[in-house]
């Protein structure tokens, strides 16, 4: 029993059943998309901000899903790449006066390179040991950001404040609404890319490594290269999310990027469904809204409530929102 | 040279704390093959129970033994109630359960005993033994207790039937079940024991770091690091790893210029990652051979 097999998807479904439930899925996706497109027009600015954060976390979770769900590598340290993305954007805007739109691809690129480089030594480590290595990364991030020798760039403990951009071309949107649509657009673009990646030849190689690295190697897959590349791509997604977060929150500081963030991303991944990309949306919603719900139920025991909700979710849908939807679809078909 | 020895001694003193925790981590890893993120919070909760018993006027060692018993029962119950239904769930689901337990214990302790820092008595006194207060009587006592626990565990796993059964259940659940071992009960026993060892660690650590709901966070990190460094399959290795982490942390803080003092923890962790890259199963861990 290896870790790789444990986190693999539930048994594959046959193709004809897939096609039948395909139309239902398509309608559902269109409905979700329509809601996502229209809802900010009718909501308060703060709610729009929360929804934007949900989308941002969803992007980061997608990245983590590529690594953990499709490639079978654990990461407890994706908060670090989120932080690198956020700081890249903040520093480029603050010190170089670059427009926010251009900083996002740069942040993605920087994160891709750092993720790839971190992925190289991580090749030697498996499951729990990899978890520890990434865990260390998450612990180290806020402390490195606080370093006095980097203070000139990072602003030390105080962090960097950036200015929220207005909607361009005189569009009749508030700043929050505009950023919501920027995030939604970026998210959809990345979702499309991730989906295509997973379905491509490279995607099959990535999943083959998850299911059986030795067999993948003997089929001619360059395991080391693909694992490191997946780490890079995953970091790219998370970095873009971090960059967007910096713009939306208008502020970066070391203490926003602690272990708590990395763990929240992981919880979001499991809640959404490991190995199912659209689940990221459910995961993002969990990260943003569930702590608030827990606080409303009981102020003093909000942590305990949060924990209880997590345990209940794992009981009720062991394979996340993705698993739940799949079960419901199967049940619908059998009726 | 003198600073060097002082730093090493100081490192060994704090390393004792990490060794305690690393031992608890390895114990539960042997029983269930998972790293329990909530281990530190469970230990903290046990320590609060001990504190409460002391407040109620129990003598120290009676409270100590009673806490161990309560923790054992608690750990056993958690396994039965929370984890048993998820026996076959993926690793990541377990991870989320651990995070949930973490949040629950942390918030419960804060709710019942509030977040103010409380002093915790030491059974060994606070007199300085040698090295100008670097190793006090309590630190020495703590290291002694760690070694005793290690010895007892070694004897338990090596010479008793239950210990053998637990090892078998962890190493190969299916074969163990075929020869009549109750694998589920063994896992619950493992949780109980890990909770008790955590309680020992918590009670020993509390006089040094003071009692409060967040006291275990950084210690658990170091404990994990020590356990992984020594090898998750080896209790002795874990104790060594714990001491090593303490010493490395201290030396890094003293001898690495500019960033050393600020980055003590990341440097220690980075060193451990380097060790792991060279020896992926830890210093004393068994290499697991996998059939393809």
TrEMBL record, chain A:
Keyword Isomerase: no
InterPro entries: ABC_transp_permease, LivM-like
One function term, GO molecular function aspect: branched-chain amino acid transmembrane transporter activity
Subcellular location: Cell membrane
Keywords associated with the record: Cell membrane, Membrane, Transmembrane, Transmembrane helix
A UniProt-annotated Pfam family: BPD_transp_2
GO cellular component, as recorded: plasma membrane
Entry superkingdom: Bacteria
UniProt topology in membrane: Multi-pass membrane protein
Membrane-traversing stretches: 23-43, 49-67, 74-93, 99-120, 127-145, 178-194, 228-253, 259-291, 303-325
Full protein name: Branched-chain amino acid ABC transporter permease
From TrEMBL, chain B:
Organism, scientific name: Zhengella mangrovi
Molecular function terms, GO-annotated: transmembrane transporter activity
Family designation: Belongs to the binding-protein-dependent transport system permease family. LivHM subfamily.
Bilayer topology annotation: Multi-pass membrane protein
Protein name in UniProt: Branched-chain amino acid ABC transporter permease
Matches recorded under CDD domains: TM_PBP1_LivH_like
Keywords on record: Amino-acid transport, Cell membrane, Membrane, Transmembrane, Transmembrane helix, Transport
One Pfam family this sequence matches: BPD_transp_2
Gene Ontology CC entries for this record: plasma membrane
